[in-house]
Every structure is written in structure tokens, then in C-alpha cells.
Amino acid sequence: MSLSKPSGSKRKITDEHRIFQEKWELEFFCCEVKEKIICLICNSTIGVSKLYNIKRHYEQHKTKFDQYEGLLRREKLKELKSKLKNQQLMFTRPMQENESAVRASYALSEMIAKHSKPFTEGEFVKQCLVKAAEIVSPGSVKAFQNISLSRNTVAERITDIAGNLSDQMKTKAISFTAFSIACDESTDVCGVAQLAVFLRAVDEEFNIYEELLELVPLHDTTTGEDIFNAVYELLQKYNLQLSQLSSVATDGAPSMTGVNNGFIKLLQMKTRELCRDKPDFHHIHCIIHQEVLCSKVIKMERVLKAVKKTINFIRSRGLNQRQFTDFLRDLESEYCGLPYYTEVRWLSCSSVLDRFWKLKEEVRLFMEVKGQDASLLSDQDFLQDLSFMVDITKHLTELNLKLQGANQIITNMYDQVKAFKCKLMLWEKQLETDNLSHFPTCDVFKKSRSFPISYIKYAEKIRSLMTEFEQRFKDFKLQENNFALFTGIFSIDIDKVPSHLQMEVIEIQCQAHLKQKFDDVGAQDFYKYLPVQYQHVRKFACEIISMFGSTYQCEQLFSLMKGNKSPARSRLTNTHLNAVLKIISTNKVTPEIDNLVKNKIFQISGKKL
């Protein structure tokens, strides 16, 4: 017997009434919730969305509910639907409250980290929140009590946030066109060497990322090889390719710059091994550090030693300091004291010398009252040297401040140095003719003397400072043509342009609309508007923009490190220290709190305050 063939025509779902129809709500007191049919009378789920099944289920309640007709039936339907919604809220509201509590826990933990507070501060913050709620909104007390802010929870939240920031950087690294790193090393309160590694990267859309990669503890030696191993491991961890490495900025320490086994040498060797056709990356000796080293050539130890000795006599003894403050008050002085001189803090030198100069007469009188030798403060040669030091250190400090700060373009930093070198040339010529136009302290002192004095001899100091600037900034001078191309692509002589860029630069220079855009937005922002057909110039611009000019970010991080891992918090682990500093120093990348909350099992605080 042959099997019968299936019928060629099939019944449609609409023919079987499988699609829920709105009229069934009123007719059978049911509704559709998340593609399921729910009976509003008994809250049962009707298995199949077919008219027959729904009607058969309603037969169980027909006797009781057929009495509702017309408007009464509509009101009864509204009542039953409202009842179902309230029942659903009974289950969803606690989940929403728990989610909000976890979200608040993350947000407050991030604030605790950003303000360098101990993890135990979370419990105090919670007490404050609950107390405020009891006064302002008693009905919200339970919601605040549910926020978990114990020490361990805060530590866990901070670690999660730091991990999320790292994950984002790993993902973004795929789109980087060029990147640079800045490295520096310092010792924490426990004697552990900590290596700070910052990243400055540019993606294909010219978005700039300047972020801390990690603070890496070096538990043993801190040789160039140790630093290389730590940095290379980080580059691999964050999916950063050596083929895209544009430059490395360091403080110029021997472990960094050693000829044979320095970190830079080892990294260059690794780059040549993996990227045979790539030119060597540029090594940048921190421009701020070099500026400070240049200032040492002035050699005014006699002045600094005398100022330091006098200030220490006044400041190191509590009685002397109180008496000096009273002495200044009695003389109705504009100032109430002298700041400390700290040699390692170059910026303090200018302010200390300036204050000492303004209080020199008061200091001399006080020292004489205390029976101390104050003859130098009456010596004309010493005062002349001091006045020159006040002015020149002020000029150097102004340059130093211009070079500081995050998110600086290296070309702008080098322009500041070049401008200062031009100023030095002007000052040298002016001092040779005893012109003190730009040395106001010297000018005032000269005019206050009843006998003629000359500042011509200080032209030699300016000359030696100028020579030192020329010597120190040789590595930047090697990049002058590249910097000139980046900042003046429409005016540069084509013969000074690298051969692989010449054809594209010629085309760019001949396009008026691009020249207009360059004039409108400036060099830094111009290249993001450059058509993608000029890929070599775009890549060149990314490399310049990505370059660090200094290790300023590292120095700032070490100040934060010492504030967080202080003697009072010496038990802070390296993992937690790195997490805290990562959150504090994050720049463009922000924590994805929503994703962290979704991945966390909602657990409210079990501690009632």
C-alpha cells in the first residue's frame, strides 16, 4: 500500500487564529505578556495562542464572569490587568533596587579612588548617607542601607573599574595608527621600585589617548633589561605593535639610556628584529628635565648657599620662626615669612629668591638682632648677584611652567624652547650694553645705588646658558625638519620633505581649500580633515602627534603614588595601588559602569547601620 502524499496546500497561522487578537482581552479576560498568553482571572499560562485553547480555558470561569457586560466588563478588565501589573512589580522592584545599590557602590568607590581616600572611608560615607536620609527622606533609608561600601567591597569595585579601563584600552589599541610611551621609575614608601608607563596614542580618526598603562613593581634589580622586560610585556598585554611605536620618552637615567644594555638600546634591538623595514623610533630625553639641567650652568652657588643657610636658621627653629613672623608684623611687612628652599624642586627656587630679595632688609635686621653674621646682606657684589638670580630664575621658571601639563603637542613644547633661545640671544646683546629692560629686579637695584654699577659681566652667564641649551636639545634639533613639516606643511621647502612624502605634500600645497582649512583650524586639528588618499602624510602626522615631549605625567603620578601609599597606608598592595592610580589618571577613557553592573550578581549590603 502506497503512502498518501501530503497535501500541497498548508493552513496559515492566521487561519488557525494563532496570532493573539486584542478583542480576546475583553472577550476572555486574558492578555499577552512577552509572547505568552496569561489568564487575568487565575494567572495561568495558556499553552497555545489559539482561539480554541483560550475559549476552552475561559469556560472554567464563564459562569462567574459572564455577568459582566458592557462598561462593567471593561472596568473589570482594567482592574484585572492592574492587579497583574502590581504582582509583576512585586518581583521586579527589588531587582531594580538591588541594581541601583550596586551602581551606587561602583560610583562611590570610583570617587573614593579619585580623591585618594582609604578604602575604609566607604563605611563612613555610608553612615553619612544613611544619617542624611533619616533627616531628609526617612522613606529612603532602606535604599541607602542596601549600598555595600565595606572595605573589601570598595577594594573589589576599584579593581573592577581599573580592569574595565584596561580592557577598553586593549580594544582601542586595534585602531591605533601610532603610539608613544613615557617611562620613569621611582621608589614607594616600602622601598619597592615602581615603573610608570604612560601611553600616548592616535587612532585613524586622530583621536588622542593619553593614559596610564600600568604602574609596574620591580621587586629585584632595576637594570635596563628589567625595565625592557616589564615594558615589552605591557606592550604585548595591551595589543600594542612595535611597528607603530613612534617614540619613547625617558628621564635620561643610565638604566634607560645605556649604550649596550640600556632600556632604549634593548627596545631598539627588539624593534629591528621584529620590524626590519621600520625606521628606529625616536628617543626623547624629557624636555623639562633638560631645561632644569641647563639652569645648573649659571653656577651661583655662593648666592644659593647663603640664602639657604639664612632661611634654614629662621625656619628650622620654631622660636626663631615665631619671632621672625612677629618681627615682620611689627615692621608692617607685606609678607609674614620665608618659604623653604628645596633643591629638588626647581620651581621653588624662583619664589624663594624673590621673597628673600623683597625681605632682605628685614632679614638683615633680624639676623643682627639674633647675633648672626649678616654681612653678605650688606655686600654690594652679593646683592648684585642675588638680583640677577631673582630675574633669571623667574625667566627659567616661566619656561618650565609652559612646558608642564598633560596633552601637550611636542612641536608646541619645542617652539617654547626655541623662543627662549631667541630671548637669550636678545638678553645677551642687551646686557653687553648694560640694558636691563627685561631684568626688572636688577634695574631697580641699579637705580637705588648712589654709585654706578654695571651688569655687563652677566652677559657671559647668558652666553653659557645659551650654549647649554644648544647642547642639551640636540635630539630635538634632529627633528626640526619633521616638526617644521607638521606645523607648516603649506610653506615648507619641498626639498626638506622626506622623499616618501614629497608627492603627497606637493598635491596638498596646491589645493586652496585645504590651505583655507589649515588656516582655520591650525596644524594640530588640520590633519583629521585631510582626505584618506594622503595616507602617508596622515600617518606621519599621527606619529608626530603621538610623541611625548616629557615625562611630566610620570612625575605627577609619583606624587599621587606617595600620597596614596603613604606611611599610614603602607599595606596598600601593588595591585590596588595600580588600580587607584589608573582611575585617578584616566583621561579620555571612562569606566563603563553599566557593563560592570550587568556582569555583577546583585547583592545588597547585609550590614544595617
TrEMBL record:
Residue ranges of every copy of the SPIN-DOC-like zinc-finger domain listed in the record: 21-79
InterPro entries assigned: RNaseH-like_sf (IPR012337), SPIN-DOC_Znf-C2H2 (IPR040647)
Pfam family, one: zf-C2H2_12
Record-given protein name: SPIN-DOC-like zinc-finger domain-containing protein
Phylogenetic classification of the source organism: Eukaryota, Metazoa, Ecdysozoa, Arthropoda, Hexapoda
